[in-house]
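Hi team,

As requested, here is the filled-out complex form for the pyridoxal-5'-phosphate run. I kept the field names the same as last time so the parser does not choke. Let me know if anything looks off before we queue the next batch.

— J.
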Amino acid sequence: AHNLALEEMDKACLLHPATSIADHLANGPRIMAEASGVHVTDTRGNRFLDGAAGLWCVNVGYGRKEIVEAVNAQMSRLPFFHSFTSMSNEPSIRLGDKVLRWAPEGMSKVIFGSGGSDANDTNIKLVWYYNNLRGMPDKKKIISRDRAYHGVTIGAGSLTAMPVYHQKFDLPLPQIRYTRSVDMFRDKPADMSEPDYSKLLAGELEKLILSEGPETVGAFIAEPVMGTGGVLPPPEGYFQEVQAVLDKYDVLMIADEVICGFGRLGARFGSEFYGIRPDIMTMAKGLSSGYLPLSASVINDRIWAVLEETAPQMASFGHGFTYSAHPACAAAALANIEILERENLVGNAAKMGALLKTRLKETIGDSPIVGDIRGEGMMIGLELVKDRETKEAFDLSLKTAGKVQAKGYENLILVRTLPHRDVIAMSPPLSMTEENVEALVAGVKASVDAVADAYKA
Ligand code: PLP
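And here is what came back:
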């Protein structure tokens, strides 16, 4: 039942992340109470179709008994033990094996964490450690991209290129640089081919590496499809061009697969989808479908070979958390991946994602406020514009995407808005049926139409 006391208690005791403090105090929380399949119900009794899979993460959908039972059994047997001093546990060993079977060829070792942010901090330390071991202590700079989101901890928050995560925190760290992002809608000149645009962007990356000095650049980090930055897929050939530059200057490639991994693009990983050869991969979200917090940093043979060489000196990678390789979280992730495999949800994501994009184009492709419908698999972005011809954006203070999202609540669908401009992001569970896709499209159309009509009036 609708529980006002709980809403007041929320305002009294919780600080919500990256949320307008004023809006929250004025409007209070929307409290989710239960979920099943692709639907989430709040305490007011609204049952939403979750077009966002929580926060891009509930890949297998809600209410999966197998995951609950696997966690339950593991909790009863061994709820916790740490992984320091060579301690280990069965679910994390089996999960490490499973993750490496899923990962592209050449990936070699897994370090578990609790979330995407800490995994990216781990990755920064891995780059620094690796280059120290190789006798290249100056090779520490990490190049991220404009508008990137890689988390919020001191390290990951530095890789993130958004003012709200830097201002008043004295971030980014001095070792972090940014290069131009992919943006085929707004940045690629209309008369330029995708391969040429890829060359242009890779050329800028090379210029940046040269101006910084290649002997000071350790790694480049990118999401296969940029998520929070705007649901921005790379132009054709982008990662091939980028990898050629990285290879030339001995710079590591970090693929942040936190959103793209575990089937979201209709391939196991974005790296597989785009032919990326990562040295390090960041995994979280879909790894456990959010049932329990879990992340992984995965390194390839080349990094492992250098670490392994230090074994005779009794070296250790001075890093790790109490909850690294948590057995209950690992049990959840294992059960989650088994569902992905058994139900071929990766294949379903490719099929349903294609349907979702097509049906959105058919139903709202001509809307006066829809400028672009883009994405791969179950990762779709809708960019709203004031003028379709000129691509002129709405004044951001109008919160046009926010209005569509709010209409979505009325139409019982959940979609997300992104921070940089008026983009609606859709990232539903990979288990969506055709009927679910049609319901999501109908809800999005009704919401977009309502806002377009209100603007016309
Ligand atoms: N990397 C990417 C690409 C993400 O989208 C996110 C979160 O949305 C993160 C890292 C940070 O993950 P977490 O919120 O689990 O710390």
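Two things worth flagging: Residues 115-117, 120, 149-151, 223, 227-228, 256, 258-259, 284 surround pyridoxal-5'-phosphate (CB under 6 Å). The domain at 66-342 is CATH 3.40.640.10 (Aspartate Aminotransferase; domain 2).

Thanks,
J.
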